[in-house]
Design goal:
Keywords: Membrane, Transmembrane, Transmembrane helix. By secondary structure, this protein is mainly α. It has helices at residues 5-23, 25-30, 39-57, 60-86, 96-114. The protein has one domain (5-114).
């Protein structure tokens, strides 16, 4: 496993985030926009995807596929971040500017993951 250290950081972050979906599901279910059906299932799927993709990042043969999966996941969860920004009831009391900064942060995370797709 001769991967760059920052790929390991990314992997750990996604694995921990995925585990958190199961530790505190209500937090994640709350931010899923109401037009999505079955938010509990979506939380489970996204949490499992984060864990699996994080683990796959740790291995050279699968890291580039996992990076593409993370990009897809980040695109898929963007509506939840937008919903948090637009709806004060699901914003956890965070200041509006932090919720706004989270939106372009998704692009930064996508660019970070894209570095490992090659």
């Amino acid at each position: 496993m001769n991967l760059p250290w920052h790929l390991y950081v990314m992997a750990v972050l996604y694995i921990l985030a995925g585990i958190n979906h199961f530790r505190k599901p209500k937090m994640y279910i709350k931010i899923i926009p109401p037009f999505f059906k079955n938010p509990k299932l979506l939380n489970t799927i996204s949490g499992a995807a984060e864990i699996i993709l994080g683990i796959l990042l740790l291995f050279s043969p699968t890291s580039h596929f996992a990076a593409w999966g993370i990009i897809a996941l980040l695109v898929a969860v963007f509506p939840a971040n937008l919903f948090m920004f637009q709806n004060k009831n699901v914003s956890f009391g965070l200041p509006k500017w932090i919720l706004f900064v989270r939106l372009p942060l998704q692009l930064v995370l996508i660019v970070w993951a894209f570095q490992y797709t090659l």
